[in-house]
Specification:
Blueprint: E1 8-13, E2 20-24, E3 29-33, H1 38-52, E4 56-58, H2 65-75, H3 93-105, E5 112-113, H4 114-120, H5 127-135, E6 148-149, H6 162-171
Parallel strand pairs: 1-4, 5-6
Antiparallel strand pairs: 1-2, 2-3
Length: about 180
């Protein structure tokens, strides 16, 4: 059992991009899951329980109170930088290195190319590996993988779906707001 994860608290919160499943350990926020329908939530909680060796307990008022408050402030436009303890135990090696650089070095309202991010972590030419790291991001929004785009300006992929990526970039003023 991972000693840092003796308890795992979770909650589903509404957002401008749909329901989000949040989970935290004693170390900090460990995951954010998009489109947290009942089926997706149950699958994510089973996977988390298996990976962390902890039984998930629903508790929006415990460790998740501050992440919930900060996400609400992000979506209402009053928070531009998250200040949360993060549990990186679901990410390792190169992926963790890339995600930490993304979190620290790509501020609100900006974007970075996959290749540029590879250069920043000392791995020029590793744009595809950076793309894989973005796809493995257990902490989207807080670790802003939506800010990583293709070098030609195309959006690239996104685990939450391209429409969600567009909405997040529009929220940050990078793209025009959707017409609907």
């Amino acid at each position: 059992m991972n000693s840092n994860a003796q308890s795992l608290e979770w909650a589903v919160v509404g957002s401008d991009i749909g329901p989000l499943l949040l989970a935290a350990t004693g170390e900090g926020l460990v995951t954010v899951v998009f489109h947290a329908t009942t089926e997706r939530r149950e699958a994510a909680l089973r996977q988390l329980s298996g990976r962390l060796g902890a039984e998930p307990v629903e508790d929006p008022a415990g460790r998740l109170a501050e992440p919930i408050r900060q996400l609400a402030a992000f979506f209402d436009g009053t928070l531009r930088e998250f200040g949360l303890p993060l549990d990186w135990s679901l990410s390792g090696g190169f992926n963790r290195q890339v995600l930490r650089e993304l979190a620290a070095g790509v501020p609100y309202g900006t974007v970075v190319g996959y290749g540029d991010l590879a250069d920043r972590v000392g791995s020029p030419g590793a744009a595809q590996a950076v793309g894989a790291a973005m796809g493995s991001n257990p902490l989207p929004i807080v670790v802003p993988c939506h800010r990583v785009v293709e070098s030609g300006g195309k959006l690239g992929g996104f685990g939450g779906g391209l429409e969600t990526k567009r909405q997040l970039l529009a929220l940050e003023g990078v793209l025009p707001a959707p017409l609907f």
